[in-house]
Amino acid sequence: MSESTIKLYHFAPSSPSRGALLAARVIGVPVDVIILDLFKKEQLNESFIKINPQHCVPTLDDNGFVIWESRAIACYLADKYGKDDTLYPKDLQRRAMVNQRLYFDSSFLYPKIRAICYPIIFEGATEIKDKLKDDLNNTLNFLNQFLDANMWVAGDNVTIADTAITASMTALREVGWDFTSYPNIQRWLKDCATLPGYEENLEGAKAFGALVKKNLKQ
Ligand SMILES: N[C@@H](CCC(=O)N[C@@H](CS)C(=O)NCC(=O)O)C(=O)O
Hints:
The chain is an alpha+beta fold. The protein contains 8 helices and 4 strands, in the order βαβαββαααααα. The chain folds into 2 domains: 6-81, Glutaredoxin, CATH 3.40.30.10; 92-213, Glutathione S-transferase Yfyf (Class Pi), Chain A, domain 2 (Up-down Bundle), CATH 1.20.1050. It has a 4-stranded mixed β-sheet, covered by helices on one side. Helix 1 links the parallel strand 1 and strand 2 (32-35). The model has no long low-confidence stretch (mean pLDDT 97). It binds glutathione (GSH).
């Protein structure tokens, strides 16, 4: 029996890390999950620094081919191990649309969630500044608009843009964010619950939410 030699270095509360793992689950590729506890600074272990000098999760090691950046990991896994190209289309324009949503997540959505949550988890903040709240809500408006005409964030079928954005958005929901103004997002989040690996993702999102809520003045 052959054993998987695909390793994913992972920490469940991290949204990018969950995004890569959820992509692997939806693609259906078996990965050995190796937990690095960031609160114990395990990512700074000498053995991991040798694998990834940037010492971040998620990091993928596919038989010695090492890559990090959660969305790049998802693209690689979908291209290499996807049963077909639905999760990451080969058609240039459909692929460009998935890439656009992935970049939307990496450069707009997730950084705005992080800008709110990291100071609360790590720097003693107990409140969310109005400017940051408005900024994130503005970005959620765009996501809600993407879902106006589409069942999934990049079209009519699930793609790796959905898995990345699910990881970000479940974390935000577990923080207790108000999604009342975003009916499409609420509907889409319900649909995402059908994805393989969703419950595993949710567990990490809840851990993240608890870290924020414990310090947030209600
Ligand atoms: N853009 C990266 C972000 C990765 C990232 O920020 N990882 C954090 C956890 S959320 C990390 O590993 N921090 C520990 C460190 O950098 O030492 C991705 O999507 O993979």
